[in-house]
Amino acid sequence: MTEVLQDRGLNVTDAVMYETVPTGDEDNELLNLLEQGGIHAVTFTSSSTVTNFLAALSRMGVPDPVQVLEGAAICCIGPVTAKTAQQAGLNVAVIAEESTIPSLVAGLCAWKQNSRHTLTY
To answer: Is the pLDDT of residue 96 over 90?
Structure first.
């Protein structure tokens, strides 16, 4: 895109607004909670979080990351993220009405109200 704008005579400064950095690969507590059904919902705020989370689970030795997430409601910030999750094999339970964190939280709250899960704090 930068080159196209420059070819049209515009001065362009390429500014990185954020960078997605995968997490470390050791989180036994996360794996234990997933395997024991202790995580009721997993939220994804971008397609890269879907891809990176599944890759991280694979690196942690999970043979089938999609299967280990079957017990959790998959909640996505919008339709693009939901499509990525679905293409990865995840069953999406919540898609935020707007692609914003407040809308994702509202969707998660609505899911909780209609869910049989009891969350303990």
So the answer is: yes
